[in-house]
Specification:
single chain; alpha/beta; seven-stranded mixed β-sheet; six-stranded parallel β-sheet; 11 helices; 18 strands; binds zinc ion
Length: 362
Amino acid sequence: MKAAVSREPYQIAIEELDDPIPRSREVKIKLEVTGICGSDLSLFKGKLKIPRPVVLGHEGTGTVVALGPDVTSLKVGDRVVCTIIGHCGQCFQCKRGDYALCENAPMFSGGMLDGTTRLTKGGEKIHQISYQGSFAEYSIVPEICAIKVGEKTRLADVVGLACGASTGLGAAMVRVPVEAGSNVVVYGAGGVGLSVMIGAKANGAARIIAVDINPAKLETAKSLGLATHTVLAGTDDTRAFVMAETGRGADYAFDAVGLSSTTEEAMTVLRAGGEAVVIGHADGKIEATIDTVHFLRQKKLTGTFGGSIDPHVHIPHFIEMHESGKIDLSCLMDRQYRLEDLPQAFEDLSAGRITRGCVVFD
Ligand SMILES: [Zn+2]
Ligand SMILES: [Zn+2]
């Protein structure tokens, strides 16, 4: 099968791999649309580490074409969205419903849930990201990570629910549910930041203040009817703006960027008792200096993985909201690519020329 393999940072090329075979409780998916996520870009650049060679791509959607032994919940022909939230369903965290924290799902290991890999090229072992590796014609995915969707669901609209859109929606609706009438600041108006805004708006936020260094992204956030206010980072004084607008500071700040500067500032724009949620990881590791007074003012600083959703509950729920017109997820995707075009796609994403792109397969 054809797959985009990355053998070193900043390199990716199409290679012919062996046809992969699903093992116990795994399914083989023929990809239809795969989203191109910010973390694929971080992995491509080597800012996030993963064993190579690797097939990136972790927002796969498509059709089940083969079943491994012991698969009970899916059949050949089912259309699925593959979630990044690998989970065993058995461990301490899974039993509490904290699937994003599953103790048996290693992040960025390059392997499947059991640590082994499924992809090969002759004798060579090839890794895959997030138990998917969906920049390929076919993916092997744990059955528990493939969420069945309706026959009429447009996969190109909901592909982001595999990772980016679920991460943003879940941050504002599941991890730290925004209350109606709240004041919300969102750092980063890319795909995840816009998804946070969609979630905050759906929950009835009064003000959604988008902060970004890119005026075009702020314009998008506003023209989509998501941001009520925008702040151009590096030029405007975000804290002064938020204080003037809200009177006491924001109830919630979501950092969909993940730089020292954004995480530090997120704490300063909060009201006493407010909560900041770090979602982005533009840099693998950040050093942030935080005035301990923020903690004396009982502000909270937390994070989320994948929006902390229960994929089997929230992905169908988000699809239902989209299909009934309560939210619009199709606005997040603004360019389609062929598998061969991934170097260009990464360049466009890196330069901020697109909000989100996707690879469309034949
Ligand atoms: Zn992602
Ligand atoms: Zn688990």
